[in-house]
Amino acid sequence: MNIKDIFEQLDLRDSDVQGGELAVHSPIDGAQIAAVKVDSKEQIDTKINNAQTAFKQWRNIPAPRRGELVRLLGNLLREKKEALGALVSLECGKIYQEGLGEVQEMIDICDFAVGQARQLYGLTIVSERPSHKMREYWQPMGPIGVISAFNFPVAVWSWNTALAIICGNSVIWKPSEKTPLTAIACQKIFEQALTQFGSDAPDNLMQVLIGEREVGEQLVASTKVPVISATGSSAMGRIVGTQVAQRFGRSLLELGGNNAIIVAPSADLSIAFQGIFFGAVGTCGQRCTSTRRIFVHADVYDELIGKLKHAYGQVKIGDPLDENVLVGPLIDQDAYNNMQDALIIAARNGGEVVGGERILQDQYPEAYYVKPALVEMLGRVDNVQEETFAPILYVFKYTDLEEAIERQNDVPQGLSSAIFTTNVLEAEHFTCESGSDCGIANVNIGTSGAEIGGAFGGEKETGGGRESGSDAWKVYMRRMTSTLNYSKELPLAQGIKFDFSDL
Ligand code: NAD
Prior knowledge:
Blueprint: H1 3-9, H2 14-17, E1 22-25, E2 32-36, H3 41-58, H4 63-79, H5 81-92, H6 96-116, E3 123-126, E4 132-140, E5 144-147, H7 155-166, E6 171-174, H8 180-197, E7 206-208, H9 213-221, E8 227-231, H10 234-246, E9 250-254, E10 259-263, H11 269-281, E11 291-297, H12 298-314, H13 333-348, E12 352-354, E13 358-359, E14 369-370, E15 373-376, E16 392-398, H14 401-409, E17 413-414, E18 416-420, H15 424-430, E19 440-443, E20 455-456, E21 459-460, E22 467-468, E23 477-485
Parallel strand pairs: 5-6, 5-8, 6-7, 8-9, 10-11, 10-18, 11-16, 15-16, 18-19
Antiparallel strand pairs: 1-2, 3-4, 4-23, 12-15, 13-14, 17-21, 20-22
Helix pairs in contact: 1-5, 4-6, 4-8, 5-6, 5-8, 6-7, 11-12
The protein binds nicotinamide-adenine-dinucleotide.
Residues 147-152, 174, 176-177, 212-213, 216-217, 220, 231-233, 236, 239-240, 254-257, 288, 387, 389, 415, 462 line the site of nicotinamide-adenine-dinucleotide.
């Protein structure tokens, strides 16, 4: 599929993708593929006001009927999966199979949300007062602001939007300035779903704000947007979380990771190898859940690391739209520079670096393809504290599991973790209260990727937010406690007497 076909299938016209101030470059070859219009301050204000108006209408639509809109959205995503998957590859550089996988996640969350639309359950609570009942309801919040990162340009939007919509909210989405095209394509798909849905859906139920960081800042500052769901670096989350807290808004933060895998002596090394290899080099190391550190038991170290080094030498790197390729480019030159800086520091700290060099420079002088790097931290007991958003895998050797878990946890981030072991005691220990301190702790699968059915997110500098499955829908709703008196008395709580019968 060429770029013209992709645009045509996604209904992206010249007026949508040309003539604007924000240039869009494909990381595949660095070529400019679009120039999109940036929203002005006034336009952003108007869109926020529109979102409030849309919310006031949408909240009155019964939730199962709201689910119908998400069902239609899921169907359209099925129809457009190949074209949208290809646009994801073109715009953010992940291989086509991963682009398709990202769209599949969107379809899955739509299916999940349709069912959830009939299950926005509250509670009934026994009252301490006679002839009283207490209930807990979940009510819509208002416009939900979604800020997303370049590396999952569409899935993160859908995780938030599918649930926010069934919960009765409107959505305003600020995508990464590096991936506005996929956002414009999603808005078009959403609008087609609205047309199929019928006239009981308001205009402007889901709007996109195009632009750089300042556009996100304006959204974050608005008291008209009660919830901000922000996905990106911990540096961004630190600012956004503080600003939202200052205005007593609610934030859902999905930030950086520094994910580790422990490989125990009893591990099935064949699956451990696969989990580590995909986790470390997949998406060119540009997933929040990418495997960045491994702790390998001394008994299996040589065998596993030998296998990994061999695979690192063989992996096919190149155009992500070529089906034989497993690793595409880095997003841009900054990402490449950050990777080189991290490797220099690793070598200075005694790490033995294999790979990491730039390749395909002659063919793609404006793009940044690299060999994934493996860094053996031989004899070192210290750790790697920073997330470098590139394919660097730091390798440590261990002999004591307690110590390996402690070192795994001893970083500022807390997103994803895994252990490979066939020892049930080790597996259960890893997922107990003194095991992994991450939001995700897997056994015999890697750190990378997650199913939409579970709550996704992590602790510490990963931000503490949870989105996608489980009960993540509650973040898009407000909790209301209601006490109902069906007697002719008015007893006060806690037995308080307030006698004004003489008055
Ligand atoms: P980034 O932090 O540079 O940008 C993310 C988004 O935040 C962009 O849309 C950007 O314009 C916006 N932004 C930046 N500063 C802002 C501010 N002050 N106010 C409002 N908006 C602001 O991140 P990136 O380089 O696009 O993505 C990579 C990072 O995202 C990595 O750290 C990765 O781990 C993280 N990430 C986390 C998850 C997760 O679910 N935990 C998922 C994907 C990516």
